[in-house]
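W.,

You were right to be curious about this one. When I first looked at the sequence I had no strong expectations either way, so I just let the prediction run and decided to look at it fresh. Below is the sequence, 218 residues in total, followed by the output.
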Amino acid sequence: MHLDTVFFVIEIIGTVAFAITGVITAIEKKFDILGAIVLGTVTAVGGGILRDIILGYLPPLAFRNPVYALTAIITSVSVFVLAYFTGKKIVRHFDIYSQVINFFDSLGLAVFVVAGINTARECGFGDNAFLSLFVAVLTGVGGGMLRDILAGRVPKILRRRVYALAAILGGLIYYYLLEFGIFPETVSMLIGAGSVLVIRILATVFRWNLPSISNIEE
């Protein structure tokens, strides 16, 4: 399989994964179907749009190639309709449902961190480690931040189990695997994305969190 095809497939997987988390958030907030489509689409393509603006890749890819937005819209409608007819079952199996959503959120994060570095390299910034890592993390967390802001809640990146840290570590691993040419690009991509996913899953299972101050009283 050609490397460009691999990149495209990975981005589509991430788009679907993040669109699902956006729609679920919309359902939790009791948005209607239009609100669910908006939130699902923003979650799926928002990080990529912010990345492209910073890299000067204009108009952003989401507008140049509508397949990403269309994928997000189709996914959003499908998930909303499924939830509409199976809502009671979801409530009865809430624990399983939460784990599934967390997995999709982690998968989307992993995929878009890799996509961010790939885009930075394609735009000629592959030798700038800081910029590459910054846009990688932004691609991974940007859509989720916009989702949470639109839904009226504190962004997950600021409070949930090493979310941004997983993106940073996975991005570093992928960037330097490419920099030193240790493995073929496809293998490096899988290792980088896999690192993000594994860290997020371990953080969820073992409830890892970064230190915070919670014992201050007025």
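Here's what jumped out at me. The chain has eight helices and no strands. And, maybe more interesting for your project: The mean pLDDT is 86.

Coffee later to discuss?

I.
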